[in-house]
């Protein structure tokens, strides 16, 4: 891309800066994720569930990610790549934080409430599937667009895991299924973040040599 590209007219091919459907999709995704962040924070604290609290942090981070994606629409493509790079690091750091939190809860010996976990996990799954379906058509854009799709996909997978953990907690009477799923969510965050980082670094190298 030309180094003097600064506006919508110069938006690089393969991005969605000029597509109003992309902007609307980001706004819907932001509102859904912010709402589910509040639901899972309250529910996770009430149920003493590591996986719900981990997913709540993820919803909050995704809401911030969608806001950042909206902020760079119409800017030079290098800014989209820079934001994707920052989001990749945020996903990696988030995953590491979840691992530490799960370890702390294991040491504390907490006992989560399975029905609350299952109910909120199901609501979160419906929300994430709706967002992922809405964003599916945009997944082949730049690294920033790809990061939005990766986040939505990972969130839906995490919600399925939380529902399975709720069944495990109910069946075993222990917290270990919840803690294992919190670890799985962390692994998804780290792997997704590394993927976004690779794409963003590739784009930044291309911008530097443009």
In brief, what are we looking at here?
This protein is mainly alpha-helical and 210 residues long.
What is the number of helical segments per DSSP (H or I, 4+ residues)?
6
Please compute the radius of gyration using only Cα atoms: 18 Å
CATH class: Mainly Alpha
**CATH fold category name:** Alpha-lytic protease prodomain-like
CATH architecture: Up-down Bundle
What does the overall shape look like?
A: elongated
Strand content range: under 5%
> Strand count, sense and closure of the main sheet?
none
- Give the strand tally: 0
What's the domain count? 1
- Fraction of residues in helix: over 70%
- The class by helix and strand makeup works out as mainly alpha
Kindly report the average pLDDT value. Answer: 78
H/E series: HHHHHH
First-residue to last-residue Cα separation: 6 Å
Low-confidence stretches: 1-14
């Amino acid at each position: 891309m030309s180094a003097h590209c600064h506006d919508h007219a110069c938006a690089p091919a393969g991005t969605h800066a000029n597509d109003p459907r992309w902007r609307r999709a980001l706004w819907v995704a932001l509102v859904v994720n912010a709402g589910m962040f509040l639901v899972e924070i309250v529910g996770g604290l009430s149920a003493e569930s590591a996986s719900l609290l981990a997913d709540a942090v993820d919803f909050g981070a995704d809401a911030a990610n969608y806001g950042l994606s909206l902020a760079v629409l119409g800017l030079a493509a290098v800014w989209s790549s820079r934001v994707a790079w920052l989001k990749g690091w945020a996903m990696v750091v988030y995953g590491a934080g979840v691992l530490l939190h799960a370890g702390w809860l294991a040491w504390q010996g907490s006992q989560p409430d399975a029905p609350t976990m299952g109910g909120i996990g199901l609501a979160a799954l419906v929300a994430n599937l709706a967002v992922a379906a809405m964003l599916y058509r945009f997944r082949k854009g730049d690294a920033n667009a790809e990061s939005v799709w990766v986040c939505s996909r990972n969130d839906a997978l995490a919600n399925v895991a939380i529902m399975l953990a709720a069944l495990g907690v109910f069946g075993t009477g222990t917290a270990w299924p919840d803690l294992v799923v919190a670890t799985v969510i962390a692994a998804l965050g780290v792997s997704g973040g590394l993927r976004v980082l690779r794409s963003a670094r590739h784009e930044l190298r291309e911008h530097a040599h443009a």
